[in-house]
Amino acid sequence: MTELEIESNRRDLILRPQEQVDELQRNLEDTIILRDFITDQEIDTLVSIYEKHLDKANTKTTGPTTVITRHFKEDPEFVEIFERISNKLELSLDIWGGNFFDTGKPFAIHNDVDYRHDIMPAKCMVIPLTKTSQTDYVYVTEEDAKFYVFDQTMPHGPVKCFKGEPDRFSPYNTPLSDYKHIIGLHADNRQPKLDVTFNRTWSEGLSVERECNWEPGDVIVFDCVRLHCSSDFTQHGMIRKLGLSLFTKHK
Ligand SMILES: [Fe+2]
User: Fold this and answer.
1) What is the whole-number distance in angstroms between the Cα of residue 245 and the centre of ligand 1?
2) From ligand 1's centre to the CA of 223, what distance in Å?
3) CB 154 within 8 A of CB 183
4) Residue 69 C-alpha to ligand 1 middle, in angstroms?
5) ∠241-229-67 over CA atoms, to 5°?
6) Mean local confidence (pLDDT), 88-115
7) What 8-state DSSP symbol labels residue 221?
8) Model's pTM, two decimal places?
9) 111: CA distance to ligand 1 center in Å?
10) Could you tell me the residue ranges of all domains in the chain?
11) CATH of domain 3-250
């Protein structure tokens, strides 16, 4: 298969077997925030791992510069931090994907599962590392950047949610204009209260399970199948944020 064929194949959502969907839904848990879990020294360590691998970074058309986990997941300093989080959660996890991301644009609604159905996604760990505000911006608060996790899930494949807009492009995830395969959607087309500037119809039928602040030092842990997005932090004087997302499966 050529790269173009692989790319176009990825547009279509292939449904998981029902037993897998049932298992993922059965295992669904509430989002957890480990507050102040990552020390300043560990933040420095993670930022330096990111910087060390910047020569292998991808700059996506959607905004972020990313360094994927393949480049650093064996790094002993990284492994130590990952194991400390897993132990705290009392979970035995392997990493199947993820990345550092340095972005000046908020992320729209998506999930973090793989196209490969032999990977049963478990927890996604999001570790905020830095927030950068405009130098002249004096109204900085911890509420400046939000991270929303929704009640609704998408277990089948990686998606981005653009309800009603079939012509939207997404470089990796399947763009969804139709939400029929999203699980737990509210039939009343409610729009959750979100601090975002994207088209509000994209959030129709969703409800917020957990609203988190983008706080360096915290670890946000949620099921990879859950839809999530960030607020439009650029409305609050912020220009960039650097974070680490880790996608895991049970050992
Ligand atoms: Fe994500």
Assistant:
1) 7
2) 10
3) yes
4) 14
5) 45
6) 96
7) E
8) 0.93
9) 6
10) 3-250
11) 2.60.120.620
